[in-house]
Specification:
Structural class: alpha+beta
Largest sheet: 5 strands, antiparallel
Bound molecules: zinc ion
Shape: elongated
Order of helices and strands: EHHHEEHEHEEHEHHHEEHHH
Number of helices: 12
Strand content: 15-25%
Number of domains: 2
Helix content: 25-40%
Strand order of the largest sheet: 7-4-6-5-8
Radius of gyration: 24 Å
Amino acid sequence: MPAILTRVTLEPSMDGVAALPVLAALPLALTGAGGGTPLPDLCDFEFDGGPDLSGPPSAFSSLDSGTPPLETTDGHHPAYLRQERYGAPDHDDYAPSLPGEAAFRHSGWSAKRRRIYQALLRTGQSCRRVANFADCGNTLWLHRDGQELALTCNKCHDRLCEPCQRERQAEVTESILLKCHDAVQPLRFVTLTLKHSDTPLGLQIDRLTSCFKLLRQHPDVKSAIAGGVWFLEVKLDKSKARWHPHLHCVVEGSFLDQKTLARAWHHTTGDSYIVDIRAIGSAADRARYVTKYSTKPLHSEVSRDPEKLQEFVTAIKGRRLYQCFGLWSKAVRRTPAKRKLLTPIGHINTVWLDALAGVPDALFWMRIAHGRFPKLRRTYPLPQAGKDEAPPP
Ligand SMILES: [Zn+2]
């Protein structure tokens, strides 16, 4: 039985969107001694909307993710990926993801996730990468964080995993916006595109980033761009047949008109001249732009095309999706995740089963968890609360 703690005053939020601390590596054998356990790599995690899980509880298979039933879900939630493991389980350093854990972390993008998972398999990615991707969100534990309830889980950090990327990109966005705030010279948005061609995506990305380096050395541009950041965006053209990679940049520097920039870009690339440059209107515009382009590694139109998705997975492997340059070259630094002192309550499954068995403390914590994280109501349902159900002492 998990450690059940004494009651504290908690105000469950019913809005369904809450900060969720997540662990990079949670020890499997938390004892819940009640004195607080230092936990590594804590960070914030925000859920997207996902399917509406606010209705009455039911089985996983009844969830509507907006996608047809998939043949490999084994009747579980579509977000659950059944990743086969080979060899003795003694050598596994973490537990496989459970269907409820997968549904909780990934229900907002289950169909896209499954397509990416299949692309990872088809492109021969390492077993470890595939297993980490499939098991992202496992070891879901309830904790007390002061007066708050916190959930923690393992995460895969894969650049194609949306929840993990949202966490990372939140850090990047914050760093860039801070740099924008401290900029001495005017800021501008710049978009640089390449002429459409049938060249493989990987080569086009290499060419795009190489040309941008050369552009910054161009005599008409060099003095006008002191520093900045570029974000790579990859889309398909209107025919959905050819790639349309382009760079969205925030640059700090002196005035640079569109014609001069277009001429310099054409001079650099030899065939491309479509560029866009505009002054930043307000801090809100700045925040919107940076947030939009720092969180777009994969467009849905690409993920729906198995062949294009396969090429995309291979093409971005080992390549940068954003880069700071010039005066901004050190704008984004990886900061060690904050370590927080959390008090473990128990693994979600254990607390849930105790709650179903009528253990008062477990019921109390599960009801708090349901209020704070409504997604849990569908995957870990509870009977209706009785009028005379007493809170734990
Ligand atoms: Zn992940």
